[in-house]
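Structure (tokenized):
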């Protein structure tokens, strides 16, 4: 099942996402005593991370029950501003008392081994059951990629939990969760802002194009929420 929330500004998108994450974490902790979330990278989630770390919201979350993972990571050093871990650590994780943080080891020169290591981490944390995140944050590139699943890439058909990819991007080497993991999530939160995304958003949400990576994220039993700002939603109004 999917839903679309259109907000006026990127700030409003961050507010809406923070409220939904609060709902998800409360339900997960009540039910299982733990909240497992996979964070995304790029520019968009920074506002959300800052909102979650803010005075008004920080104390609403039960951080001690959070287990933090990533939906993808670039093969750069941890302290590189392009690192998705660095983004989340600087804006959120360094400011709240989350103790269970499982970053993707994408600085490992052997990226294939790093993918296997992270898959093992997922198996150990989720037990023998296939990993089913309570919440997965995702963004979408203007080409329709999500996490580090890019159009026409073999990783889109992987049955592994985690893949290492080499793509024609400014940051070519990456680790990414795969569609089988993303589609077992209880709640997918797509945060998409900016006019440059509007055409793809229209192709996926209005025209039903099913071939793009972002359109192949359809949780089997969970909910997929697209939170858009007016600019990204301009062609689906
Ligand atoms: C990454 C991201 C990627 C991102 C989109 C949108 O590591 O590159 O996970 O999937 O979400 O490229 O990026 P922006 O938020 O910067 O537009």
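Design, position by position:
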């Amino acid at each position: 099942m999917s839903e679309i929330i259109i907000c006026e500004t990127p700030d409003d998108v961050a507010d809406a996402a923070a409220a939904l994450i609060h709902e998800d974490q409360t339900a997960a902790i009540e039910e299982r005593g733990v909240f497992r979330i996979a964070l995304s990278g790029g520019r968009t989630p920074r506002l959300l991370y800052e909102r979650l770390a803010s005075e008004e919201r920080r104390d609403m979350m039960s951080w001690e029950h959070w287990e933090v993972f990533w939906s993808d990571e670039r093969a750069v050093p941890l302290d590189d501003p392009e690192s998705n871990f660095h983004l989340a650590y600087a804006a959120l994780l360094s400011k709240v008392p989350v103790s269970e943080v499982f970053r993707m080891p994408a600085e490992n020169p052997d990226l294939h081994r790093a993918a296997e290591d992270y898959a093992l981490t997922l198996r150990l944390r989720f037990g023998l059951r296939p990993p089913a995140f309570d919440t997965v944050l995702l963004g979408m590139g203007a080409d329709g990629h999500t996490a580090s699943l890019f159009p026409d890439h073999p990783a889109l058909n992987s049955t592994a939990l985690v893949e290492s990819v080499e793509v024609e991007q400014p940051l070519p080497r990456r680790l990414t969760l795969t569609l089988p993991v993303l589609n077992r999530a209880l709640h997918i939160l797509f945060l998409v802002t900016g006019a440059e995304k509007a055409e793809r958003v229209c192709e996926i949400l209005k025209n039903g194009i099913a071939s793009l990576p972002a359109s192949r994220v359809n949780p089997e039993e969970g909910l997929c929420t697209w939170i858009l700002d007016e600019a990204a939603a301009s062609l689906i109004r």
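Reviewer-requested clarification: The helical segments are 10-32, 45-52, 55-58, 84-93, 111-126, 179-182, 198-205. The pocket of 6-phosphogluconic acid is lined by residues 40-44, 72, 74, 84, 139-141, 145-148 (CB under 6 Å).
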